[in-house]
Amino acid sequence: MQRLTHLQRLEADSIQVFREAVSESEKPVMLYSVGKDSSVMLHLAMKAFYPSLPPFPLLHVDTTWKFRAMYEFRDKLVAELGMDLLVYQNPECIEKGINPFDHGSALHTDMWKTEGLKQALDLYQFDLAFGGARRDEEKSRAKERVFSIRSAQHRWDPKSQRPELWHLYNARTQPGESVRVFPLSNWTELDVWQYIHLEQIPIVPLYFSAPRPVVERDGTLIMVDDDRMPVEPGEVMERNVRFRTLGCYPLTGAIESEASTLTEIIQEMLLTTSSERQGRVIDHDSSGSMEKKKQEGYF
Amino acid sequence: MAHVSNELLASDIEAYLHQHEHKTMLRFITCGSVDDGKSTLIGRLLYDSHLVFEDHLASLESDSKKVGTQGDELDFALLVDGLAAEREQGITIDVAYRFFSTEHRKFIVADTPGHEQYTRNMVTGASTADLAVILIDARKGVLTQTRRHSFLVSLLGIRHVVVAVNKLDLIDYSKETFDAIEADYRAFAAEVGLSDIVCIPMSALRGDNITEPSPNTPWYHGPTLIGYLETIEIDDEQHAGPFRMPVQWVNRPNLDFRGFSGVIVGGSVQPGDQLRILPSGRESTVARIVTADGDLDEAMTGQSVTICLDDEVDISRGDVLCAASSPAAVADQFECHVVWMSEEAMLPGRSYLLKIGARTVTATVAQPKYKVNVNTLEHTATTTLELNEIGVCNISLDRPVPFDAYAENRDMGGFILVDRFTNATVAAGLLHFALRRADNVHWQAVEVDKHARATLNGQQPAVVWFTGLSGAGKSTIANIVEQKLHELGRHTYLLDGDNVRHGLNRDLGFTDANRVENVRRVAEVARLMADAGLIVLCSFISPFRSERQMARDLLETGEFVEVFVDSGLDVAEQRDRKGLYAKARRGELVNFTGIDSPYEVPESPEIHLDASGTVTAEESADEVVDHLRRAGILAPPPHPQP
């Protein structure tokens, strides 16, 4: 008997999740962050509803501090696919000029991303939002449900999660509550890269190594993506670097690498020795910090 | 990833990727308690399959010294114990999913705790598993919890079991002890219907027989744990069975395309296959199997596809496409196993939402026939099911659903129950067979129908439902309303809580379960009277939203008028016409609404009466009559639309 490969099973299960979520909600939306996981999630959504377009818009909770290459990639891809894109920027952050240099990474992330996301969901009254989080990213995420209920205040209560049996998902909500749905729950980082390779899914070129202007801060290489970044004279150097994860450019560490093709990236990843989230500054705060952030409404 | 020394990876990445992109997947569950070394085993699997990164290793090393239980050695358990609270308590409290991969397979591990109160978690983890790894501490042998785990594994339809006899290092790798445990286990497993069993002597801590055969057990010639997990063929009966696909979503991008999207949960399908659509029973032929990667010549169990049919058939979400030669059954009453998963106990007679496949219907669960003691497998009589209890019940639905017995097809026979108000998933269930009763009692079609009777009465049937605390004034107001309607020449009947309890409901007390049954019977009687063309006035405390909703659902839209007689507890208690509050306060009366039993305030009643004393009962009654007049209930019914 012919068997499905693990990637075929993961794909089919994710598609089932998409179709179920759309059928059981009034106003769904997909959170699109332009990274590789978002690329895979969007690719799966296109497959799930083919030949229709996915019946929901994309929402980019923007911080104005993403890499320029991310904005270019986003606008081009969305135009090609014909999807609707909503871009939300927390107006309070714009007014106060919140940035990672003057306000620190914690406040910057909280105000632009966590608060921005809550404001956007309230503004558009979405009752269901797809996110690209995976269970293998962090220990506390191993117990996250595929369909995760959030209170009207967007809080996550680890004590009152609904059991998920077979492929039966319960997406029912009270007024004000919403559901976060994670179609990539059972994918690992390696699965994601293998799938990108197999399906030739376009990703932001920043994942590939190229000569880029960087500075070294606290032992981390930060790319100088525009002139908003304060630098000392002579501090900027050119290095062959790439990024394993994408976020706000001043908060995203680059790694020195010669891997300039997809297969080279995967090879390097398999031979390398530090995990994916290490490049993200927010995880370093304290043990269990992701869990606290989740309870407060961080995706 | 640490320590990878795969030559293929370094020398030929394309060949490596090709190999890894064509791996299969196995989902398994691990059962055992922390004491059995379960977390250590999973940590070891992740570690040995090189999925632990250097930075995780660094924090593992520092955590091991800080809170570990293994002295200076690595405590693998710390790799998997997730949430902060449980890390402090040192126990796992929920289902966690872990991932690891070898050259041949990707694995998804459902990690669930072994303590008695967590049946819910284990059933959840087992529902998607192909195989179970049951841990036994070699020093303790087969324990009560081993029996419990094995029963649940068998109940959930897992056929392959690996018995990991762990901590063999602590009994000097004794063959005799291992053999005794194996014999013990096999004898017991036969009782619960498990037959495909492999017992492996191991030490998760030392790594014996995990990936490599251990030199410490030269007497053991069976597979290593990983060796077995990598090669076991899951003989999937669902895969080989008849075609089944619940329709999740109707795909209509334009007028020229109409496809039915879903995941195949049984058998396979090809263009040209004859299908039967359930529950309607109509037949059609597969024209195309559409995917974003092109049309398929064949699709099999586990694939998500979109199926186009030869002719225009009316199909909606929740319908099931079946092989015409071997369709699923359709029924509305079943016998099933129910696993209760909510802190709030089951209330027989209450209506819950039932989701099966892509279909959600209303279900009423009857009083359990018995519950199963998961430790001894004994059956005991019970009136309800509490959290983590498993029972066998009859269940009846408001509409027929397509299904297969759970033993034949998990996805066609497994369901969840959802509370209609909190929306919590309160139970999981396994359908076994349809009850014949439903087939044999045919609905008697009658010539003189409800409309005919209502027309003769010159009014529209309605149920006016007064709810509120004892002493709020429900019966007083309902009485006046009936007098007024009578004077207007309307045909009425008043059902009153106290009176009904002297006759029809004489056998019921005041527990939550009895209150639910009380209201269910009254609602059914009210429905019959409305069918007879009457305006029915019901005066019942009816404290729970669920039952008021059930009464509402029995009637047609607009026929149910909920009247909230709102006095507030203080006023009702002050009046205390029957002296009941005083008794309840003295503890002489238990389960008294408002005192030690809850009253759930109506969220959007048709009429909200202020009964605190500022408005007279007469005025309140006028308000009700006015509402009925405005709603058109006091006028003759309109002619039915042709």
Structure description:
The complex is a heterodimer of chains A (299) and B (642). Chain A folds into two domains: 197 residues, 3-Layer(aba) Sandwich (Rossmann fold), CATH 3.40.50; 80 residues, no CATH class. Chain A is 35% helix and 15% strand. Chain A is built from eight helices and ten strands. The radius of gyration of chain A is 19 Å and the shape is globular. The termini of chain A are far apart. Chain B has four domains: 229 residues, P-loop containing nucleotide triphosphate hydrolases (Rossmann fold); 86 residues, Translation factors (Elongation Factor Tu (Ef-tu), domain 3), CATH 2.40.30.10; 108 residues, Translation factors (Elongation Factor Tu (Ef-tu), domain 3, Beta Barrel); 181 residues, 3-Layer(aba) Sandwich (Rossmann fold), CATH 3.40.50. Helix content of chain B is 29%, strand content 27%. In chain B, the strands form five sheets. A seven-stranded antiparallel β-sheet of chain B has the order 7-15-11-12-14-9-8, with no helix packed on it. In chain B, strand 5, helix 8 and strand 6 form a beta-alpha-beta unit. In chain B, helix 14 crosses helix 20 and helix 16 runs parallel beside helix 17.
Give the overall silhouette of chain A. globular
- Report the largest inter-chain contact: A-B, 70 and 83 residues
Number of domains of chain A: 2
CATH topology of the largest domain in chain A: Rossmann fold
Global outline of chain B:
globular
CATH domain class name of the largest domain in chain B? Alpha Beta
Judged by helices, strands and strand pairing, the structural class of chain A is alpha/beta
What do we call the CATH topology of the largest domain in chain B? Rossmann fold
Strand order of the largest sheet of chain A: 3-2-1-4-6-5
Number of helices of chain A: 8
Cα Rg of chain A: 19 Å
Q: Fraction of residues of chain B in helices?
A: 25-40%
Oligomer: heterodimer
